[in-house]
């Protein structure tokens, strides 16, 4: 497995396993299968409702803790966010059965963002989270957070796939030492991604699937990726992406697929801000 080094020296695998939308009662099996396939980075969130199942799979795997890279996420907190954030992290750790996570992400750029971030900085100093970062931060919000706080986020996890490639975000993150992580790398299959003729043509040239081409494209851009699958065959396929390389011409062909637009949530749409902010969690 290739690793990247975050801006605080923590090493992170370039490929991991995401568990969004896996029902809690199917998550333990999916994570057990993913660990058996070789995945060591696991990406969950308080909002996914399956941290406990992820924790059971980790415990039953017998894999030494230091070989795993576990990410979870803080949901939108009301002020006083410093106390609430601390409580939310402790609740996530209890559900996961862990004494620390490797990466704690602020899930959305909403709520008392600065209070949340300062509590995350404190948790990082105490060793409860080896690295801290954000998700769904557009360049303007990310830069403001960097300028006005002590710790520069180690990671920004954002929607990134061939139809929404995020070049301006990537450039800003690179300039400030923030690791770009993709969510929805397959766009959850939207826009007929898995049968896209350009991606399929590149796959044919390498004897690889569209999914493998997409993961390879992300990895060659030095973007950490966390494909989700409940199917052990597809988990293995998605893990088998380190024995081929896209040429410059093939990278350019993927670049041409960019629409520059989200296929999911528009974080600048007031209705979406209101909807996400209303989804409070008990923690
Ligand atoms: P995704 O990885 O883009 O796509 C998952 C879909 O692709 C599933 O329907 C899966 O079906 C299918 N699939 C997987 N491998 C395949 C293959 N080799 N061939 C054909 N189909 C395949 O979607 P995602 O789950 O939204 O994103 C990945 C992870 O990012 C999440 O699990 C989560 O950890 C994270 N995420 C974070 C945020 C955030 O706000 N920070 C938002 C969304 C997601 P099967 O399961 O049936 O294989």
Can you walk through the features of this model?
With 283 residues, this protein is α/β, with parallel strands linked by helices. It has one domain: TIM Barrel (Alpha-Beta Barrel). The protein has eleven helices and ten strands. The chain has helices spanning 24-37, 51-61, 81-96, 113-125, 139-147, 167-176, 197-206, 210-220, 232-239, 248-255, 270-278, and strands at residues 3-5, 11-13, 17-18, 41-43, 69-74, 101-106, 129-135, 155-159, 179-183, 224-225. The strands form two sheets. The chain has an eight-stranded parallel β-sheet with strand order 3-4-5-6-7-8-9-10. Helix 6 (167-176) links the parallel strand 8 and strand 9. The longest helix has 16 residues, at 81-96. It is globular, with a radius of gyration of 18 Å. Bound molecules: NADP nicotinamide-adenine-dinucleotide phosphate (NAP). NADP nicotinamide-adenine-dinucleotide phosphate binds next to helix 9.
């Amino acid at each position: 497995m290739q690793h990247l080094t975050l801006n605080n020296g923590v090493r992170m695998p370039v490929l991991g396993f995401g568990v969004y939308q896996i029902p809690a009662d199917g998550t333990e099996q999916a994570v057990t299968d993913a660990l058996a396939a070789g995945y060591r980075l696991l990406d969950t969130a308080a909002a996914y409702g399956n941290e406990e199942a992820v924790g059971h799979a980790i415990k039953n795997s017998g894999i030494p803790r230091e070989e795993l890279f576990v990410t979870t996420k803080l949901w939108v907190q009301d002020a006083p966010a410093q106390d609430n954030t601390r409580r939310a992290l402790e609740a996530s750790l209890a559900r996961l059965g862990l004494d620390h996570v490797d990466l704690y992400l602020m899930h959305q750029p909403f709520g008392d963002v600065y209070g949340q971030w300062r509590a995350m900085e404190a948790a990082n100093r105490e060793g409860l989270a080896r690295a801290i970062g954000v998700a769904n931060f557009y360049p303007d919000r990310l830069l403001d957070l960097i300028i006005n706080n002590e710790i520069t986020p180690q990671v920004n996890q954002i929607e990134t796939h061939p139809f929404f490639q995020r070049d301006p975000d990537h450039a800003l993150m690179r300039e400030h030492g923030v690791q770009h992580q993709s969510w929805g790398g397959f766009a959850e299959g939207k826009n007929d991604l898995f049968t896209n003729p350009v991606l399929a043509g590149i796959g044919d040239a390498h004897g690889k699937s569209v999914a493998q081409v997409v993961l390879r494209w992300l990895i060659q851009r030095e973007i950490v990726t966390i494909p989700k699958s409940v199917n052990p065959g597809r988990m293995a396929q998605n893990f088998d992406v380190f024995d081929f390389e896209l040429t410059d011409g093939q990278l350019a062909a993927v670049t041409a697929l960019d629409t520059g637009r989200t296929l999911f949530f528009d974080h600048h749409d007031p209705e979406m801000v209101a909807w996400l902010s209303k989804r409070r969690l008990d923690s």
